[in-house]
Amino acid sequence: MLKGFKDFINRGNVVELAVAVVIGAAFSPVISSLTEKVIMPLISALFGQPKFDHIGEFHIGQTAIQPGFFLTAVANFIIVAAAIYFAVVMPMNALKARKKVEPETTPPAQDIQLLTEIRDLLAHK
């Protein structure tokens, strides 16, 4: 039983997942501040209100049904996802593309070239 647990912990993907969770937790305040202090005020300046909490609100008896809170959560998710994509994913992809070196194509050796020509001539006959 302990051997199986040890094997599970020693896999690379478990360690990578743990690192991703820690980095995600550390990166969360950065994205939250970008969302709350930069993007939401811009939305507020453009549309007048950054939250949709009271959109579609209705009452059943004494209970308030507020689908606007769901809309606000969806909008926040999309904003955070876009911020992560444009601030992290795109620059990392550009960096990877810049570092990627195309393998040099060397011409085949002369004997390989001659054998290829012989093969092609025989194929035509």
TrEMBL record:
<protein>
    <recommendedName>
        <fullName>Large-conductance mechanosensitive channel</fullName>
    </recommendedName>
</protein>
<keyword id="KW-1003">Cell membrane</keyword>
<dbReference type="Pfam" id="PF01741">
    <property type="entry name" value="MscL"/>
</dbReference>
<feature type="transmembrane region" description="Helical">
    <location>
        <begin position="69"/>
        <end position="90"/>
    </location>
</feature>
<dbReference type="InterPro" id="IPR001185">
    <property type="entry name" value="MS_channel"/>
</dbReference>
<comment type="similarity">
    <text>Belongs to the MscL family.</text>
</comment>
<keyword id="KW-0472">Membrane</keyword>
<keyword id="KW-0812">Transmembrane</keyword>
<keyword id="KW-1133">Transmembrane helix</keyword>
<keyword id="KW-0813">Transport</keyword>
<dbReference type="InterPro" id="IPR037673">
    <property type="entry name" value="MSC/AndL"/>
</dbReference>
<dbReference type="InterPro" id="IPR036019">
    <property type="entry name" value="MscL_channel"/>
</dbReference>
<keyword id="KW-0407">Ion channel</keyword>
<feature type="transmembrane region" description="Helical">
    <location>
        <begin position="12"/>
        <end position="31"/>
    </location>
</feature>
<keyword id="KW-0406">Ion transport</keyword>
<comment type="function">
    <text>Channel that opens in response to stretch forces in the membrane lipid bilayer. May participate in the regulation of osmotic pressure changes within the cell.</text>
</comment>
<comment type="subunit">
    <text>Homopentamer.</text>
</comment>
